[in-house]
Amino acid sequence: MESQDLRKAGLKVTHPRMRILEILEASQSRHMTAEDIYKQLLSHEEDIGLATVYRVLTQFETAGLVTKHNFEGGQAVFELDRGKHHDHMIDIESGRVIEFVNEEIERLQREIADKHGYVLEEHSLVLYVRPKKKTGK
Amino acid sequence: MESQDLRKAGLKVTHPRMRILEILEASQSRHMTAEDIYKQLLSHEEDIGLATVYRVLTQFETAGLVTKHNFEGGQAVFELDRGKHHDHMIDIESGRVIEFVNEEIERLQREIADKHGYVLEEHSLVLYVRPKKKTGK
DNA sequence: CTCAATGCAAATTATTTGCAATCTT
DNA sequence: AAGATTGCAAATAATTTGCATTGAG
């Protein structure tokens, strides 16, 4: 099935590319570093190099299959592009990534760019949050 | 004058720290990489190592004197904290960084975090924009 | 004088690249 | 078979760290 996604993206259907796509689709967290993916491959006895993981992810990004995020310093994380745009919220205590969509914010962003004489091409919005203290209920 | 800023931040007043503060204050662009600052120092015949620049910037960040941004991959940029919070817009054609403030977006962000059971601690919003095509006026 | 701060070189971390061997079509 | 793709090792880029020396209070 996903071999079609690759062909559609103009990429040859190779074993490494298929494996990496599958891992991204199966991933619970939805946001993985190249290293995460590489370790998954290793644990599945796959013989794919880390350099290939990086190369494939870059190709996927160019092809629009994947989005790359540079959250707080360290490694970049990659996320399979499932069509619907969204922004991210990161729980700084657990590291968990939560997705959200807010049309109002999207609209305001376009408006701001416009007011300054620009057209909005891309944006990156990340909220760093902390769980609310439970009130003694 | 700025020696007070350093003392207030609990940092010893040393030559490298003063120089770096001054460069940040004098900088036209307001957003400099460690390398940028290092080169400025070199051109002023200062004998300060790049490692020190990084160390000092990190201390400044911890002390709240400076904010560090990880815009699109590559080097981090540092900006002197002049009190008023703002977000950034980057002209992808010229690389220019434009600052803006929008209370409505700030409010929506707090609201979104709240709705998910979190408190907003920090956020990062960057708009990547392109100049509007001039209409043939 | 005492300990924090610095310079320099070496170490790390994340990612990229060269190239010969290996697949896809 | 022809050219794209991969693995591995070596190369980069950005930032950090160890340690002997210097400097601030």
From TrEMBL, chains A, B:
InterPro entries: FUR, Fur_C, WH-like_DNA-bd_sf, WH_DNA-bd_sf. One of its GO terms (molecular function) is DNA-binding transcription factor activity. CDD domains: Fur_like (cd07153). GO terms for biological process: negative regulation of DNA-templated transcription; negative regulation of siderophore biosynthetic process. Pfam families: FUR (PF01475). Its main location: cytoplasm. Fe cation binds at residues 85, 87, 106, 123. Keywords: Cytoplasm, DNA-binding, Iron, Metal-binding, Repressor, Transcription, Transcription regulation, Zinc. The keyword Transcription regulation applies. It is found in: Cytoplasm. Its cofactor is Mn(2+); Fe(2+). Homodimer. Belongs to the Fur family. NCBIfam families: PRK09462.1. This is Ferric uptake regulation protein.
